[in-house]
Model the fold of this input.
Amino acid sequence: QVQLVESGGGLVQAGGSLRLSCAASGIIFRIYDMGWYRQAPGKQRELVARITNSGITNYADSVKGRFTISRDNAKNTVYLQMNSLKPEDTAVYYCNALRENNYWGQGTQVTVSS
Done:
């Protein structure tokens, strides 16, 4: 059974930082491209950052220079370091694993107060 379990969300003031983690099980983690998506109330889910199985990263323009995605294949975990957070970063953040199949975590809430 595939599981993606996110953690690290919470409430933070604007300008602060959070680090999200996503622990994967039930997949051969190292061969999957991993990503972080977010969904704010009333909006569509959007890509935040992605890291391929070879370590190539890409970011949404809105988070470039502030967020960093990384992965630890030994721990089957992908991270999202979020710095200089803004109120518009408030959303539920979802972990995604993509190869032939597409898997999602349950999401973790990030709230940034002004």
User: Anything to note?
Assistant: The first strand starts at residue 3 and ends at 7. The mean pLDDT is 97. The CA atoms of residues 48 and 59 lie 6 Å apart. The chain is about 0% helix and 55% strand.
